[in-house]
Amino acid sequence: MEFYRITISYCPEVHPILPCISTPQWRNWLAHGTYKTVVVSDAGVGDDGFEKHMDRLMELTEYMVKRIREQPDKFYLILEPELVNVCFWYIPTRLRKIAHSPAREQELGKMCPVLKARMMQSGTLMVGYQPDDRRPNYFRNIISSAAVTEQDVDFLLSEMDRLGHDL
């Protein structure tokens, strides 16, 4: 199944032999030390090292979703993850016994900037937030580093609770 198409052309600024792919994508391959094993075929570009890296990021994303689901009083998963994006709300103590509703969502959305400021002031976390066309602000965590571990995910969730429980 083909999800995207890579145009084959000569791109000396990227690599003289490989298909024309974006410079950030090429740098990502280089960062994983796997550029020597890149295979170009009719099916596109493939690489075992990059595949293993992405598999690990997906495992960590699944782990984060599992941990969020294990704590439904503290976190509300908004959407099933898209690749390595996990969209959720943190639920402070005062809102934990209130049924989920549009009014509660508005309150949760107002807390995102406050909790983000606390994260930045403490210097322990930096998780982005944003609204969309159907919801107010929510947290959007992106796992992109090979250095992230399950312990880091656990720390992120517990630190959000520590910093935001009293909101």
TrEMBL record:
Pfam families attached to this UniProt entry: Pyridoxal_deC
Record's keyword terms, sorted: Decarboxylase, Lyase, Pyridoxal phosphate
Gene Ontology biological-process entries: gamma-aminobutyric acid biosynthetic process
Cofactor or coenzyme needed: pyridoxal 5'-phosphate
Molecular functions per Gene Ontology: glutamate decarboxylase activity; pyridoxal phosphate binding
GO cellular component, one term: cytoplasm
Assigned protein family: Belongs to the group II decarboxylase family.
Protein name: Glutamate decarboxylase
Native source organism of the sequence: Henosepilachna vigintioctopunctata
